[in-house]
């Protein structure tokens, strides 16, 4: 059973930065895809970025490219989402999620239904 715990959310002005952290425990091996999703009130959960834990390959949704960066620290079992140039429309509850793909599959899925493990979320609010 993989346990995920997000932290780092908060209130920031437009143009500011935040770094979200996702501490992972209980995973077996490194064949995991780690993803960040967000959900604003009244909207569906939206994919933001993903990273393959062992390969380090990443995938970001277009709306955050050039502003958000996903990375991982293997020694700390932690995945980060560095967010810069934040906009009011980035306001949402941000979730960390994980799944273990079949061996040899390197594609990073943006579909929430593919992710088996979820954290509780951390709120990000960007004021204008």
Description:
It contains no helices and eleven strands. Strand 4 (33-39) and strand 5 (46-52) form a beta hairpin. The strands form two sheets. Strands 2, 4, 5, 6, 9, 10 and 11 form a seven-stranded mixed β-sheet that branches. It is mainly β. Helices cover 0% and strands 48% of the residues.
Instruction: Summarize model confidence as the mean pLDDT.
Output: 94
The rough form would be described as: globular
Helix/strand-derived category reads: mainly beta
Question: What is the total tally of β strands?
Answer: 11
Largest sheet: 7 strands, mixed
Counted by DSSP, the helix tally is: 0
In terms of DSSP E residues, the strand content is over 45%
Distance between the termini: 40 Å
**Over all CA atoms, what is the radius of gyration?**
14 Å
Element string (H = helix, E = strand): EEEEEEEEEEE
What low-confidence regions span 5 or more consecutive residues with pLDDT below 50? none
Give the helices and strands, then pairings.
Layout: E1 3-7, E2 10-13, E3 18-25, E4 33-39, E5 46-52, E6 58-60, E7 68-73, E8 78-83, E9 92-99, E10 117-118, E11 122-127
Parallel strand pairs: 2-11
Antiparallel strand pairs: 1-3, 3-8, 4-5, 4-9, 5-6, 7-8, 9-10, 9-11
Name a few traits of the molecule:
11 strands; 128 residues; four-stranded antiparallel beta sheet; mainly beta
What's the short story on this structure?
With 128 residues, this protein is mainly beta.
